[in-house]
Amino acid sequence: MNKIISCIIVDDEPVAREVLEELLAGIPPVKIIATCRNAMEAFSVISEKRIDLVFLDINMPGISGLSFAKSINREIKIIFTTAYREYAVEGFDLRAVDYLLKPISFERLLQSVNKYLDENSAGLAAKKTESENEKSNHIFVKSERKMVKICFDEVKYIESVGDYIRIWLNDRSVVTRESISSIEARVPRDEFIRTHRSFIVSVNGIDSFTSEYVEIGKNQIPVSRSYRDDVLRRLG
Questions:
Q1: Cis peptide before 188, with omega less than 30 degrees from 0?
Q2: Same domain, 44 and 142
C-alpha cells in the first residue's frame, strides 16, 4: 500500500477521536489531516484541504453524520464509525465504503482501509477507459468462464446482488462478479443513471418515473433518497 490517503476524523467524543487516531497511526498510507468535534469543523477543513476519506460518527449534536455525508462532494469517501447498528442501511445507501461498529478493532479498521484502496484503484482504472467506453456501443464482462459482449442498447437495468451484478438485457440476463460502482464507470453517463446503491438503469428504457421509482416495462426500480435529486434532475 503506497498511496497516501488524506483523511479526517469527525466525532464529538474526545476518547473516540483519540482511539481512532492511535489505530490509524498503525496504517502507513493514512495521513490524518485533522480531527474534528463536529460537522461544522469538518466542513471548514474540507473547504481548505484535499480530503480523500472521512471517518465519520453518525450521532453528533447539531448536524448529524448522515446529513454531513449527504452534503459533501461524492468524491470524498466515507467510513462510518458509530455505536448504532440501526443506521447501517442508510449509511450504505450513501455509498459509504464501510460501516464500523464501536469498539473498533485494528483488524476491522485495516480491512476498511484496504477496501477503500481496492475501490479507489478500480475507480481510477475505470476512469482511464471511460472516454473510450463512451465512444463504443458495448463492453465485455466475464461470465461463466468467458467474456460476454454487452451492447448498451440492449441493457434494461443493472442490479447488484451480493458480490455479483446481474445485467438485465432485452431477452436474457448476464451475471458477473464485479462491483456496481466499477460497472457504473464503464457505461456511458449520458445513457445510464444510478438510482440506488443496488441499481443502474438505462435512460432510454425508462417508461415512466416518480420520485420513488422508475418503471422499465413491468419492473419498478427504486430511487433512493441519496440519488433522488440527480435522478429527477436528469429525467425532469
A1: no
A2: no
